[in-house]
């Protein structure tokens, strides 16, 4: 009978789609022998001829049974091959999901950077307006209320600080939820979660800008150092 191909071991480190077990060869077409015509008057000879006919049919059935066994083993090998492929695809899916968490974290970092840029523009522009208007008060012929430059500049700086605070709070809460979701999926075995989230330098920059903004607005309101 045709021999079955070598089975691919389960859990093999690398399984390619084009590495398949060999399929058993097809059986050649076999015509059933005709029923022998016997001399009914000679019972012994008729019994011998019928016995030989049954033996030939039995050999054919045995060959068919062996071929079905080979096909069954072939299907088993294919099933093991598909299992290996499924295991590799599951591993790749787990790693893609883990990388998606990193991409989501980087997206949150970029969002916070956008908030930082907007807040920095508002704080810097507000402080600049305050300084320009404050100098114009001392220019002869220019009549401005003493509170006008401070109020306008303080409003812009306060708006920048408020936006920065909201951005920081949103970022911290979002990262907490993201870390919790990642830990839950790691605990369930859905992702590996081997790499840790690094320290967010964007968040540190936002906190430093917040401190500078608070110092700026205190300096503008009370006229004290370091920017007074």
Automatic annotation (TrEMBL):
Segments traversing the membrane: 112-133, 153-172, 201-225
Pfam families, alphabetized: DUF202
Example of a GO cellular component annotation carried by this entry: endomembrane system
Topology versus the membrane: Multi-pass membrane protein
Locations listed in the record: Endomembrane system
Domain DUF202, residue spans: 103-173
Keyword Amino-acid biosynthesis: no
Keyword list, A-Z: Membrane, Transmembrane, Transmembrane helix
Keyword Cell inner membrane: no
Main location: membrane
Source species, domain of life: Bacteria
Coiled-coil intervals, chain numbering: none
InterPro entries, alphabetized: DUF202
Record's protein name: Membrane protein
Organism expressing this protein natively: Pseudoxanthomonas suwonensis
């Amino acid at each position: 009978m045709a021999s079955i191909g070598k089975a691919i071991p389960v859990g093999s480190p690398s399984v390619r789609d084009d590495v398949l077990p060999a399929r058993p060869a097809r059986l050649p077409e076999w015509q059933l022998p005709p029923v022998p015509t016997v001399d009914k008057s000679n019972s012994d000879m008729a019994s011998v001829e019928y016995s030989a006919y049954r033996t030939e049919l039995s050999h054919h059935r045995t060959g068919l049974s062996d071929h079905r066994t080979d096909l069954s083993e072939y299907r088993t090998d294919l099933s093991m091959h598909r299992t290996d492929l499924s295991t590799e695809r599951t591993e790749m899916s787990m790693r893609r999901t883990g990388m998606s968490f990193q991409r989501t974290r980087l997206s949150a970092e970029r969002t916070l950077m956008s908030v930082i840029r907007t807040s920095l523009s508002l704080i810097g522009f507000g402080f600049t307006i305050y300084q320009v208007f404050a100098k114009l008060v001392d220019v002869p012929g220019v009549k401005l209320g003493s509170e006008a430059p401070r109020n306008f500049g303080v409003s812009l700086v306060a708006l920048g600080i408020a936006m920065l605070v909201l951005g920081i709070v949103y970022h911290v809460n979002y990262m907490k939820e993201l870390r919790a979701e990642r830990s839950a999926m790691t605990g369930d075995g859905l992702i590996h979660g081997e790499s840790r989230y690094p320290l967010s330098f964007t968040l540190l920059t936002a906190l430093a800008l917040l401190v500078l903004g608070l110092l700026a607005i205190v300096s503008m309101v009370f006229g004290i150092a370091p920017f007074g």
